[in-house]
Amino acid sequence: MLELSVITAEGTVFQGAIEFLAAPTVTGEIGILKGHHPLIAKLDVGGLRFINPDKTERTIFVAGGFLEVSNDKISVLADMAENLESIGLDQAIEARKKAQEMLAGASDAVSAEALKEELRIIAMREKLAQIAQFKKH
Length: 137
Known about the structure:
Layout: E1 2-8, E2 11-18, E3 20-25, E4 28-32, E5 39-42, E6 45-51, E7 57-70, E8 73-83, H1 89-104, H2 109-136
Parallel strand pairs: 1-8
Antiparallel strand pairs: 1-2, 3-4, 3-6, 5-7, 6-7, 7-8
Helix pairs in contact: 1-2
């Protein structure tokens, strides 16, 4: 068994035992099982997917931060993390539309680049919310 902690500046998003973790890193997705070598990785935007001891799968949206693996303990210190169940699809779609409008009206290249990164995060959050809603049905 692995012990996973997902923490943001606002608090703990998840703490518990898991069997497997797939995490989006800036160099690609990595998988972690019991006995994994020590590792530190920079997180990208995406879904932190894990298998619980009861064999159910769960996903947490993450955007940035770091992951550390040591002695079957995984610590995720995320810039942003949110349980998929708490992401409303309608609100995610609306946030993407608003970000697209802001990008279209960007007055300079620096603002445009920052808005593109924000849009990338918002679009991934929306995509994961769509997947979560599909899995419910």
